[in-house]
Specification:
mainly alpha; two-stranded parallel sheet; 2 strands; 50% helix
Length: 123
């Protein structure tokens, strides 16, 4: 999620992908609590910037989720976000065991921040 001025991304929670894809009550509750205007999905790209082998699968799944929610959808390059999340957590003193469940949440906030920075109308 971002702040109301769309400047700072912050992690909220991690839900099982099956719950999100099915628009389960847990996912709907997050949407009701945070009232997003837009969904931003990470799109896997190769190091050369091409869409990775999972890209079409992610596009299809994200479009289905956006339609279920009735929200517009945008994509952002998620390349290296997991590695950056691990590095950040490691720098904060987390070991591999403590990182479990946190990497995806941090990675999502990192690629959302990338999207915010590229779409912001900041001073």
């Amino acid at each position: 999620m971002s702040d109301p001025q769309a400047r700072i991304a912050s992690p909220v929670c991690v839900l099982p992908s099956a719950e999100v894809a099915a628009c389960a009550s847990s996912f709907r509750r997050v949407l009701e609590d945070w009232e997003p205007d837009l969904l931003v999905a990470g799109l896997p790209r190769t190091l050369s910037g091409e869409e990775g082998p999972q890209a079409q699968h992610i596009r299809d799944r994200a479009e289905k989720i956006a339609k279920c929610c009735g929200l517009p959808l945008e994509f952002v390059d998620e390349r290296l976000s997991s590695q950056e999340a691990k590095r950040t957590l490691h720098d904060l003193g987390y070991d591999e065991k403590k990182m479990r469940g946190k990497v995806d949440m941090i990675a999502a906030s990192l690629f959302l921040q990338t999207w915010l920075d590229s779409h912001g109308e900041h001073d």
